[in-house]
Design brief:
InterPro entries: HTH_LacI, Lambda_DNA-bd_dom_sf, Peripla_BP/Lac1_sug-bd_dom, Peripla_BP_I. Keywords: DNA-binding, Transcription, Transcription regulation. It comes from Panacibacter ginsenosidivorans. This protein is of the alpha/beta class. The protein has three domains: 44 residues, Orthogonal Bundle (434 Repressor (Amino-terminal Domain)), CATH 1.10.260; 135 residues, Rossmann fold, CATH 3.40.50; 138 residues, 3-Layer(aba) Sandwich (Rossmann fold). The protein is built from twelve helices and twelve strands. The strands form three sheets. The protein has a six-stranded parallel β-sheet, sandwiched between helices. It has a four-stranded parallel β-sheet with strand order 7-6-8-9, sandwiched between helices. It has a two-stranded antiparallel ribbon with strand order 10-12. Helix 1 packs across helix 3 and helix 8 packs parallel to helix 9. The protein is elongated, with a radius of gyration of 25 Å. It starts with 6 loop residues before the first helix and ends in a 10-residue tail after the last strand.
Length: 344
């Protein structure tokens, strides 16, 4: 087994004390620039790797954060993680990524894993199956810095980074109306998640503002999946007066809507308009290309990490400064063929 290079080895090579080497590697202000350069160069030559665990035990900092995402299959969450990693790396942080697979059980397991790894803080997007938030309440009680992104729960009073879901839904619904669709249905998401609730309200208010009533039978309670999009179409087409357009709570649901309509030989956008939410990577590559609402995912990841860093610093300094409660990003409408309007 090869010998692991330690700061003692570097000190011996340079004829310095281990304390000097340690301070140089940690950019201590009392160590000269030239000594730092020599130590860092020798550390690279000798392929020295810092013992993160020992370092974290000494400093009380692991320079690691935990990130919980509902699913890695959604490009949306991959893109948010890309934003998080980008800023984390620039700040000397690593991330531990955990998929909850939309279940509360795995969400709890993720938190246990993070606490065992002594992470400095946690970023999380709530699983659609989570209705009991005890595990998050426990983090707050233990004063572990926590920030939600995309999916939040306001009752928990946890700082969050979100897109303006209400505005995005309002604009998406209004776009369908402007393009000549008259009976717009909404395939909703689980209503205990605030963002999905805001999208339903944005849809309703856009209809009201355009002198349209939000009919109860034009709202289908889905579960954020391709299957729920298909089931919604089956339900809507059985109505006496079916809708002529669909606003789906997110893009996988919208994909289910499109697949079901195409299987039934309907023409999109000529007979039915469709718009989703999230601007997933597949949107441009299906036929017809799917209109959607972009949630500024990379920016969301960056803002979430920066907000968490603020909380960690406040914790470290035992400051009474109040952290920001919420950062709201602007939705960006991406109009494509699926909502281009009915043929006269």
């Amino acid at each position: 087994m090869s010998h692991r290079i330690t700061i003692h080895d570097i000190a011996r090579e340079l004829n310095l004390t281990t304390a000097t080497v340690s301070r140089a590697l940690n950019d201590h202000p009392r160590i000269s620039t030239e000594t730092k350069r020599l130590v860092q160069e020798k550390a690279r030559q000798m392929k020295y790797r810092r013992n993160k665990l020992a370092s974290s035990l000494r400093s009380g900092k692991s320079h690691t954060i935990g990130v919980i995402i509902p699913s890695a299959q959604m490009n949306f969450f991959g893109s948010v993680v890309h934003g998080i990693e980008n800023v984390a790396s620039n700040n000397g942080y690593s991330i531990i990524l955990y998929q909850s697979e939309e279940t509360s059980a795995l969400e709890k397991k993720a938190i246990e894993t993070f606490l065992s790894a002594r992470v400095d803080g946690i970023l999380a997007s709530i699983a659609k199956e989570t209705v009991d938030f005890t595990h998050y309440v426990e983090l707050k009680k233990r004063n572990i810095p926590l920030v939600f992104f995309d999916r939040t729960n306001e009752d928990l009073k946890v700082p969050a980074v979100v897109v303006d879901d209400y505005k995005g839904a309002y604009l998406a619904t209004e776009h369908l109306l402007k393009n000549g669709y008259k009976r717009i249905a909404h395939v909703a998401g689980p209503q205990h998640i605030k963002g999905f609730r805001d999208r339903l309200n944005g849809y309703k208010d856009a209809l009201k503002a355009n002198q349209k009533k939000a009919e109860k039978n034009y709202i289908y309670q889905g579960n954020v999946s391709i299957e729920s999009g298909k089931e919604a179409v089956d339900y809507f087409l059985k109505l006496v007066e079916p809708p002529d357009a669909f606003f789906a709570v997110e893009d996988y649901t919208a994909l289910g809507v499109i697949k079901c309509l195409k299987e039934r030989k309907f023409k999109i956008p000529d007979e039915f308009g469709v718009i989703g939410f999230a601007n997933e990577s597949f949107d441009e590559h299906i036929t017809p290309a799917l209109s959607s609402v972009d949630q500024q995912t990379v920016q969301m990841g960056k803002e979430a990490f920066n907000l968490l860093m603020e909380m960690i610093k406040i914790n470290d300094s035992k400051s009474t400064v109040k952290e920001k409660e919420k950062i709201v990003l602007e939705p960006i409408l991406c109009y494509r063929e699926s909502s281009a309007g009915k043929k006269a």
